[in-house]
Amino acid sequence: MRPLSGKIVILTQPLADDDSLSSHLEQVGAEIIRYPLIEIMPTRESPEKHSVFSQIASYTYIIFTSKNGVSYFFEYAAGSNTRKDIREEVRYAAIGNKTAAELQKYGIQASYVSRGNTSEDFVQELLQQNITGQEILLPLGTLAPDTLEQSLSSYNVVTRLNVYETRYVSIIPPEIIARIEGNRYDLIIFTSPSAIESFMHFMQQAGIRGDFRMACIGKTTARKATEMGIQPLLVSSKPDGAVFAKEIYSYLSTL
C-alpha cells in the first residue's frame, strides 16, 4: 500500500497550470479531486494594448511577475507581429525561477531573477539594483497589486499593461459541495488568493461554514485565507509544486 492511500486531496488550481503538485501526490497514493475555482485568459483587445505594443521598442526593461504574464505577453506579441520590434538590448526581470523558466521557453534569459516570492520582495531587490531612468513595462494580470508600479515610478517611467485576467468559475459541481459539507476530504489545496476568494464565495452561497482544512502555497495566498477568517493548516515554505508536495506528504502522513 502506498503511504497516502485513502487520503483525499481537493486541488483548486486551473487545469492549465503546472501539474507537478498533483502528480507527486498521486505517486504516493493520494486521491486527487480536481476542482478548478478560477479561469485564466488573455485580456481583450483594447486601444491601450494596441498602443503599448505599437511602441514596444521604447521599453528598456520588461518585468514579469508570473508565468501567465510571460505567456500571454508573448502570445499577443506573436499575434500582433510586434516581437521583432522589441529592442535587442532590452533587459528582462522575473519573480522566481518558474517565471524565469517560462521566459527561457521563448529563448530569453532573464537579466535578473528575484530571490523572493512576492512583489514586496521583488521591489526591494530591484531598488537595490539601482534601476533608474528606465522605460519599464509591467505585463500583469488584472488582479495584480500595484506594488511594483508605485515603487518603481519614482525613478522611472513605468507602464502597466494587463495581459491576462482571472475569472471565477460560474458554478461548483454539487458533488464537490456535498463532499465538503460532509467532511469527506483531508485537505483542500489553494495556489492563489483569487482561488480562496472564489471558494469562500461558493461556500457562503451554499451556506457552509466551518474550519475548512486548507493548505496554501506561499505567504500571499495564506494571507488571503487569514483575511477571510480561515487559518491554513499548512503553508508551503517555497512556492514550488515539488517542495509543497513533500510538505503535504509529511503533514498527511501524521493524520
From TrEMBL:
Domain Tetrapyrrole biosynthesis uroporphyrinogen III synthase: 20-240
Keywords, comma-separated and alphabetical: Lyase, Porphyrin biosynthesis
GO MF terms, alphabetically ordered: uroporphyrinogen-III synthase activity
EC assignment: 4.2.1.75
Domain of life, per lineage: Bacteria
Biological processes, Gene Ontology terms: protoporphyrinogen IX biosynthetic process; uroporphyrinogen III biosynthetic process
Recorded coiled-coil stretches: none
SUPFAM superfamilies: HemD-like
Pathway membership, UniProt: Porphyrin-containing compound metabolism; protoporphyrin-IX biosynthesis; coproporphyrinogen-III from 5-aminolevulinate: step 3/4
Keyword flag Protein biosynthesis: no
Name the UniProt record assigns to this protein: Uroporphyrinogen-III synthase
Protein's organism: Microbacter margulisiae
Lineage: Bacteria, Pseudomonadati, Bacteroidota, Bacteroidia, Bacteroidales
